[in-house]
Amino acid sequence: MKKGLIGKKLGMTQIFWNDGSVIPVTAIEAGPCVVIQKKTGETDGYDSLQLGFDRVKEKGVNKPLKGHFKGADKGYFRVLKEFRLESSNDYEVGSELKADIFKVGDYIDVVGTTRGRGFAGVVKRYGFRGGPSSHGSMFHRAPGSIGSSAWPSRVFKGKRMPGHMGNCRQTVQNLIVMGIRPDQNLILVKGSVPGSKNGFVLIKDSIKI
Q: How confident is the model at residue 86 (pLDDT cuts 50, 70, 90)?
């Protein structure tokens, strides 16, 4: 990876492109992120940057983190994430990374935590078809048979069944940056990204381009 940022999903809107087409975009507040710690191949075996995002007051940070933040001397942050890079020589502890490290047309991967849906059945969780809707069928949204009886006398691992849905880490790949607004620290990304409004996301350059 060459570059990355921590951001906050603000919501979705739409923009008009040069040919007049309407494009749905997600607005992400990307940065400014402060370099809290720098790792290099000589000292740590790999190159990476630990970034801090979303400032908080000193009273909201415990003592170990206060000492950790003291190296950068740029305040205290709610979110800390490490990004492995090909080389970290171009960055220094305390420097700021903003939305303008990306440009329009870049392909990015966005990592977020999906919205929690609680306990869900197989129709909602996996899109099962279900049974007939007519009266008296006695089979509407149930999962149906889950295995054999005599052999193998068990339910195979991975069987799709009702359970907890959402609230898990998810990556959406190859999203296109449609706009950059450095004065507002905004990145406009084509399409949707995981998570709810004001949820934190990680923005990285795409690994498949």
A: confident
Architecture of the domain delimited by 11-29+100-129+159-209: Beta Barrel (2.40)
In this predicted structure, the answer to whether residue 158 has a pLDDT above a threshold of 90 is: yes
User: Mean pLDDT, to the nearest integer, of 70-76?
Assistant: 88
User: What's the CA gap between 86 and 91, in Å, rounded?
Assistant: 12
Asked if the model's pLDDT at residue 152 lies above 90, the reply is no
- What CA–CA distance (Å, rounded) separates 171 from 136? 43
CATH of domain 32-97: 3.30.160.810
Q: Which helix (H) or strand (E) holds 178?
A: strand 169-181
Nearest to 193 by CA among 173, 166, 165: 173
- Chain centroid to Cα 161, Å, comes to 26
How far apart CA 149 and CA 181 sit, in angstroms, is 61
